[in-house]
Amino acid sequence: MQEGRRILRQNRLRKYARILSDRYNLEVIVKDNIPCASYACTDTTKKIYVQSTVNSDDFMNLILHKGLTLHEIGHILFTSSIAWKDVDKNIASIIEDGRIEEAMSRKFPKSRMYFILINHKLLHSDKIEEETGKKLINHSLSTQVMQLVFRAAKQSTGIPPLPRKVKENIKEKIGENNYNWLVQQTIKSVQAKTDKQSSEITKKIEKKIKEILHMDEYDSFYGMGVLKIVPNAETSIEKVDSTSQKMPDLPKKDEEVIKQVVDELQKEMDEQDEKEEQQLEDDELDFDDIDIEDELTKKIKKNYERAGNNS
Description:
By secondary structure, the chain is mainly alpha-helical. 63% of the residues lie in helices and 4% in strands.
C-alpha cells in the first residue's frame, strides 16, 4: 500500500473506531509487520493494529480493513482478559472471537455482513487446506475437533460447517453425544450474557476435549487447527483489560438473518460435498473403463514399430 493511501486509510479507520467505541483517545495503526497473531489485534484499550495489505484488490482491502477494525472494537467493548485468564488461550481465542462478533452484530447490525465477508475471505473453510496442503479429513482428530468448535463458534458470522466426511469421522471417533455436546456448549458460550459466564462454559469445553483426546490436564491446544500468521505473538484476548459490556439481546429481525446465513453456508457445503463425491465416482468410472490388456498391446506394438520390427 502506498504511504499516502496508508495514512489516509489509518485516519479514516481511527475516526470510524472512535465513533463506534465511544473512546476518543483510541488509535488505529495501519502498517506492515504488526505485533499480532493475525491480520489485526488490539494490545490495549487505546490501540488497534491492522495489517496494511490484507488483499491485493484495493476495494476488497478497504472492506476487510473495516471488518477487522470492527472485530477489534468488539474486543475492546466485550472482552475482559481477567475473565479468561484461567482458560487455555487458544480455545479461549476461538470462542471469544465468535462471541465478540455476535455481540457486535447485535449492537451494530450491519457488522454481521462485514464479519461474514472477512470470515469467508480470510478464515474460509479451505484455509487450513491451503496452509497445510492437505484436506481436513486427513488431519489429526485433535485438529478436526478444534475445527468443529471453531466453526460452531462462528456459524452465524460466516464460517461454513464441517464437510460431511469430517463430521462423520469425528462422530465415529468421539461418539455422537460428545459431538452434539461440543456444538451445543460452544454456541451457548458464544451467546452467554457476560464474559465470565462464557469463560466458565469454555472451561467445561476445554475439559471435555482433553478427556476425549486423552490429553494431560496441562496440555495446550496450540496449533490444533487454529492458524497463526505471526508465531508467538500475543492475541487481543490476552491484552484487553476493560470492563466488558454484556451481550446485547438479539433483535427479532436478526433471527431470520442468522437462519438465512446458516442455511446458505450449509447449502454451500452440501454442494461442495456432492461435487467431491461425484468427482470420486467419475474417477472410479474412468479407471474401470480402461481396457488394460488393449492399452498394453498398443504400447508393445508401438515400441516394436519404433524399433523397426513389424513381426
